[in-house]
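Protein 1 of 2
SEQ + STRUCT:
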Amino acid sequence: MKIGKPPIEEPAADKPVHLSDVFTFSTLVLILANLVPVAGALYLGWDLTSILVIYWAESAVVGFYNFCKIIVIGGESSLFHGTFFIVHFGGFMAIHFMFLHQIFISDMKSSTSVNLEHVLILLSALWPALAALFISHGVSFFQNFIGHKEYANRTVAMQMREPYQRIVFMQLVLIIGAALTMLIGDSSSVLLLAIVAKIVVDVMAHIRERSRAITE
């Protein structure tokens, strides 16, 4: 069911980010969720490949909640747009995983084809991080998008574009991570850099998304 009718105008320009913005409930939950991979690396033996797979799978979580946002904004009439988004966004995720698989998962002696069973086994071992990230995005969806009525300042077209910035960022992380691994040879250093960069970018993007929703 459509909750509210979005205005025609674009949202206001980004407001300056203040330190106090970090101490909101949804931002703190986001930070805690991003720290789960750190615990996995320390205690469960997760390596750089595992962390990159987690970040790739998180895109599916982002896509799921973005589909929900599209439906909230446009109501039942936006079901076609939501379905188109899922198919299109899923295609980008598939291409991203092919690069991820080619560079970090498969070895030169094995087949370069993607084994779906292997992917599911890999994801099942990473479920604590995926569950934490799903909860984190859910908290933001219900607290901010629904509770704070952010949907009132969005259009379906705007919402369909939003998640693609994440795909671009993850592709950059993949390319830079591969380059640093080849140059440094120490994947643990690259792993730390990837996690820190992910947390900083996620928090900044989260805060800016909240600031764009404020029009009063």
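Protein 2 of 2
SEQ + STRUCT:
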Amino acid sequence: MTWGSPQGYRQGAPLINLLPREIGERRLVRRQRTAIGAAFALLLAVLGCWYLLESSQLADARREADGEQAVAAGLRAHKTQLQPYADLSAEIAATEQLRTRVYATEIRFSSVMRDVSAIMPDNVWLTKMTAAATGATGGATGATAAAGTTGSVPSSGAATATSGTTPGSPGADSPIATINFTGAGLGHVDVGQLLRALARGPKNGGRPVYLNPYFTSSQKAAEAGGEATVTFSASVDLSKAAYSGRFQPTGQQGTVTP
């Protein structure tokens, strides 16, 4: 490399900045402002995209909400149309509950008459039969039937057995009703068979329906040119198994609903 060559001159010559310092500072400020402006423009672009995205999602949410409100309005209108059926269903349920309570203590004396006719000995017949069901207030409701008639009497509650009642005597074991018989037979043995048949009488759910068969009187009538007969009076109590159980929930027949 020779002295005075351009390359040697550029490397060895000093660089002198003749521009005023203020111009350099203004250039730096302009570059900073340009960078800030570009960053701000980029931020605005990002915010614009985010706003458009959120606006689209908001519009979709509003459309979905409008659809749900329309469905809810339709369901409310349908519910209004079906309300009479709901009211009717509630009335039916209340009626069934009332019927359950009313029939909880029903005694069907037609069934009692059928039982009595089935177990009646051949040489015994009834001339009168009365029934009395003791109510919750201590009063009694009665039914009287001639032999061969049928009927039913609803009982309003279970009878309360008299304290100190002898087992097997009338009123023992808290009966719900009492039946009194009047009849006749060919002999005392025949009449006794009636009470034994009542003691072995039918059961309901494994519980005896008839309790405490008891003679009140048994008298042999004088012969008057024919065969002598025995007139008698007797009674038998009914247990809670005598309840008909009609319209009661399954498994609760024969029980009293408070």
